[in-house]
Amino acid sequence: MRIATTVFLTDRTVSPVRLARSLEERGFSGLYLPEHTHIPVTRDTGAPMGGELPEMYGRTLDPFVALAQAAAVTERLRLGTGITLVAQHDPIDLAKQIATLDHLSGGRFTLGIGYGWNVEEAADHGVEWGTRRELVRDRMALMRALWAPEPTAYVGEFSSVQASAAHPKPVQAPRELGPGVPLYGPRTLIGGAAGPKLFTAIADHADGWLPIGGRGLSESMPVLREIWETAGRDPKTLQVIPYAVQPTPGKLSHYADLGLEEIVLQLPSAGEPEILRALDDFAQYL
Predict the structure, then answer these.
(1) 8 A C-beta contact, residue 122 and residue 92
(2) ∠ at Cα 16 (14, 21), nearest 5°?
(3) How far is the C-alpha of 136 from the C-alpha of 83, rounded, in Å?
(4) Angle between helices 63-72 and 16-26 (to 10 degrees)
(5) Do β-strands 78-81 and 30-33 pair in parallel, antiparallel, or remain unpaired?
(6) CA–CA gap between residue 203 and residue 144 (Å, rounded)
(7) How many CB atoms lie within 10 A of CB 168?
(8) Low-confidence ranges of the chain (pLDDT < 70)
(9) Distance between CA 17 and CA 73 in Å, rounded?
(10) Residues 6+ apart with CB under 8 A from 176
(11) What's the whole-model pTM score?
(12) Three-state DSSP class for residue 191
């Protein structure tokens, strides 16, 4: 089982360079970073964990810039987002960022995507909350048209692009979305709570699922597998990666019994000394 990590990197924490080097030196497999462009001070949306929203949410570094720094100082460490708020991006610009990072890292990038929780943050980006799932699907389709090997046009409900020269291309090879239907771009995982809408989206346009916290997988994974196979996807290709996990030996043994090959552990949003202590503690699971 590969052991990756995630952390809220901010202007007050360890730097991406120092963290990435420390992860690779110790044998961790990857670094995933979250995304928030800003946190409106006045909002009706509650914090997803309840209570007051921690300050780190409003100080988060841009994940693509931070991961580019991490890529530059490592050779094996996988890099990912957990998650990219696709609805809040121009898809043509985002496609270029993703392809460039995958190219410069030698195909080490994983695109974790999601729908978000902060209504006010999304609204500042012009997102209508009730259509955000459809918007994300539309933007993913547009980006995959730009990642296709030949110039490919896309016309969707929310956006369109002409057949275009668009390089670099993502390094990672296409997978099968269905019989004879290629899935272009880096490995793509959708984060969110278990449910038929989420699982249908995963089977429709992703490689797998990032279940936050990793609870209840014994019950939810068979449901996801059934939806996946009904959509014509190869059952051997489904990836489920528990995300932001607080580890125990029992949890990791349970994930191994479920056949999972990767897990993402939650690091504290902290300075270098505390981060290095956490990595030394997590090293027992490598």
Answers:
(1) no
(2) 95
(3) 13
(4) 50
(5) parallel
(6) 16
(7) 13
(8) none
(9) 7
(10) 182, 183, 233, 234, 237
(11) 0.97
(12) strand
